[in-house]
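hey so u asked for the seq, here:
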Amino acid sequence: MKYSSVAALRQRPSSGVRAIATAEVLVVDDEPAVRCVLEIGLSANGFRVTSCGDPIEALAILEATPRRFVVVVTDLQMPSMSGLELAGRIRQLDPELAIILHSGALPDELPAGLVDVALAKPCSMSDLGAQVRALAELRLARSDGAAAPQRARDTT
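ran it, structure tokens below
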């Protein structure tokens, strides 16, 4: 399956600073160095970032603080649970929470609707930041009562 561009996400009117000022991202990756790079990069892009090294911990955070996060960035291959399994569990908790799969080993096909964007490692922080920003703006627009556009996929 080929993933379409998120150009449609970027064409939406931007809510600008408000979206970023209120956007918190949850990063889930079992590699501490990767988590650190993502935290620094996303923070530099204006996001508040919480990170954890275990998908089970991520689920506990999401269950304890519903609607706190606008985007989850997760690795695919982790010891306790795969990023795809985590995405499925997140969809059960909050079907509207945006999910970015960030992996060095992306599968050729992903189950429909499971993730919003798939990014191959390594990717630039500007690319990741742009994807997170577009998805954050969508999440905030949905919470403001705007119509929710279709989920998009990208592998930039």
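Residues 20-142 form a domain with the Rossmann fold fold (CATH 3.40.50.2300). The chain is about 40% helix and 15% strand.
lmk if thats what u needed
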